[in-house]
Amino acid sequence: VRRPVLLLLGALLLAGCGVSPGGSEFLHQPNCNYQGEAGTAPVILMAQAVPSASQVPCVELLPSGWSVTDAFVRNGRARFALSSDRVGSDAVQVVLERFCAFGRVTRVPSDHPGTRRYQEVISIRPERYQGAVHYLFPGGCVTYRLDFRSDEQARPLGEVSLALGFVTRDALNQSVSDYTGGRLRLDPPGAGR
Amino acid sequence: MEPTVRQPPVGIGEQAVVGRPQRASRAGRRRRPSGEAPPLPRPLNRSGRLWLTAACAVLLLWAVFITLQDTAVRVLAADNVVVQWVGGMRTDLLTEVMQRVHALGSRWTIRVLFWTTVVLLLALRRFRHLFVFLGATLAVTAVTAFFANAFALPRPLEVEILGDWTGYAHPSRPVAVLTATLMGMLYSLAPTGRLRQLGKPVIVGLVAALSAALIYLAVNAPTDLVIGAIIGVTVPLVAFRMITPNEVFPVTYHRGSSAHLDVGGRRGQAIHQALEDQLGVQVAEIKPFGLSGSAGSTPLRLRVKGDPETWLFAKLYARSHLRSDRWYKLGRTLLYGRLEDEKPFNTVRRLVQQEDYALRLMHGAGVRSPEPFGLVEITPEREYLVVTEFFDDAKELGDLEAVDEAIIDDGLRIIRRLWDAGLAHRDIKPANLLVRRGRVHLIDVFFAEVRPSPWRQAVDLANMMLVLACRSGPEQVYQRARLQFNDEEIAEAFAATSGITMPSQLRKTMREQGRDLHAEFLKLLPERPPPIAIQRWSIRRVGLMAGVAVLALLALVTALNSFESAGLL
Question: Testing the interface with A: which of B49, B64, B147, B158 to mutate, by most A Cβ within 10 A?
């Protein structure tokens, strides 16, 4: 009995780890682009979690020392975190929802087209900065919850702004269509946003 | 102090062991040839093998298909056709019904089913089934989560999703976990037979209902559900069939110690066959015997065919008893240190060899104890029988109305002989002292030790005196004891004895009589001896205590983390 079980496990592990479609990056990193197409598997799942969202948060380019951790997606809410070797683990939590709850926010010019940006400082203490950045767009809202365990604020904030971006729902629809050879799209036909 | 009295009193000095007139006939032994299965082999049965093979094949094919992009897209497209077709039937009423059915796969439903089963298995003391249930359920959640993340397939596309969901779609976590939990409940709580057979279609019905709801609400596609169900059935089914096969660990609801194994069904047949092949004994009936006095094995009475019919006694040992012995010794080491030899046995074979050896040793030392008939292998390295003579006309000493001086002398002489032979019985209690034709016989010699510590020998004497005093009086027993032991030896015995050195049955008997016989004996002694400390402290013991505490904490934290990540907390 043991031999077939071990063979099966070995085969499944190989299948799961090594030869998945598109490779590990496609499967596990919420990247804005992969091999010329918009979005990866986690980004598509995030789009399914908030079907009204016209834009979906994603990672443009991770600066050195940053990594994606703790992705969690369920209907109505999607979340992933960025950890840094300088400002701590889960230093940025990126949350996509239909609606956002604001604190004492200030509207600032947005660095992403089609979105409105609001900024919030929660606390500034020695070696700790806590704040939030909200992006509002049709059908959704994205919040970056910032928790930097460092005296530095400006530099990691700049890195986060560069690292994170948005992909439009239309681009994801096109991406799914391209991936499936035109057989399928992300949203039902005629779904208006 | 009186000099040591070594001579037994008049009338009690004859040979302890006399020839046994009644012997079971033994003929027709047969050696098991190489390659032949043992009496009770432990393979998976046919349906278990079928499930495992089918599951292996399906999962392997699935893994290959899904890793090829073109095939994966075709599967997704085919799935979507079904989901969209079902989605076309949506009505408000049906949607409401399906959302209610969807609750079958919710975390709360699973939590209620899971923890109810855990509590029931704990209450029933069915620990082996409990561990398999916990392990199988956690394994299913882990395997499902691993492959969901590995394949990262989206929820059904081009359709509005109406139900709650978490994470990737394939394989379906709610179906896998609900199926695994229900299968676990069936195999750990429902006895084999009608009830279990009835349970299977119920599970199929519930899982089918949940699957229909998941497709209707577009939470999952058909292949997500099929693969989820395969994982949910296969893991617990194979785990229960491998680790708790019905023949060995049947689910029953009769009262009794968890140490006592069922000796009906296939195990009963195997015992019949093994006794005939290995000892040449044809058994007409196997009956559990004296279960209340035994917690470390399954004691049996065997009716042997012949004219006249005779009886044999047997103790069935399995791996569960080996594990119990290990835990018992670990517990003693933690509580008292290395008070005695606390090295555990490595295998069931060695455990039964020890008992057989002890029986032969007692017999050779002239202690009146059952004549050993040999060992019988039921399942190699897993289950063995120790077969001995059966005292069919004997009564437990504790069951006698009163004991006379002859019996007191006889009991004390057993201890004298053990001392002289350099042995200790280590479990002197009413259930292990049988009186037959006016003579005391010592049974259950599993704990016997060669060249024990003087402390242990002293405890044997004290326990024998306490047992005898339960059915007579401490003064009488003390006076008779002084004929075979000097005052120093008796004082040492009661200095060595305290509550924890007395077998629980002996403590219970004294409690029922409302007497503190130990204190009464101490009053009779010419000088009250200082108690002998039984705590043995060493660096090893402290290290072991710290290690066990750390391991227990780690196990608890790991279990809680596993439950939490599996959504069971």
Answer: B158
**What separation in angstroms does the CA of B78 have from each of A182, B82, B159, B163?**
14, 7, 14, 21
Q: Which two tokens stand for residue B269?
A: 């047949």
ipTM: 0.85
CB B173 within 8 A of CB B137: no
Interface touch B43/A1, C-beta < 8 Å: yes
Shortest distance, CA B76 to any CA of chain A (angstroms)? 9
Would the pLDDT of B280 be above 50? yes
pLDDT in tens, B201-260: 999 999 999 999 999 999 999 999 999 999 999 899 988 888 887 766 788 886 555 556
Supply φ then ψ for residue B436, to 5 degrees: -135, 120
Residue numbers in A near B220 (CB within 8 A) = none
CA distances from A127 to A11, A88, A151, B460 (A): 48, 11, 4, 70
Residue with tokens 């081009």: B158
- Cβ <8 Å between A20 and B67: yes
- The type of residue at B501 is T
Please state, in angstroms and rounded to a whole number, the distance separating the CA atoms of residues B223 and A191.
26
Dump pLDDT digits (tens) for A70-112. Answer: 889 999 999 999 999 888 889 999 999 999 888 888 899 998 8
User: Which among A14, A75, A80, A186 is the top mutation candidate for probing chain B, defined by the most B β-carbons within 10 Å of its own β-carbon?
Assistant: A75
What is the nearest CA distance from B31 to chain A, expressed in angstroms?
27
pTM of the model: 0.71
CB contact under 8 A, B76 and A189: no
Do β-strands A128-137 and A66-74 pair in parallel, antiparallel, or remain unpaired?
Answer: unpaired
Q: Identify the residue whose tokens are 């594990």.
A: B323
Size of interface A-B (CB pairs under 8 A): 105
Residue B512: other Cβ atoms inside 10 A: 9
B-chain residue closest to A40, CA distance: B152
**What is the maximum alpha-carbon separation in chain A?**
65
Contact yes or no for A179 and B73 at CB 8 A: yes
Dump the DSSP string for B524-553: HSSSPPPPPP-----HHHHHHHHHHHHHHH
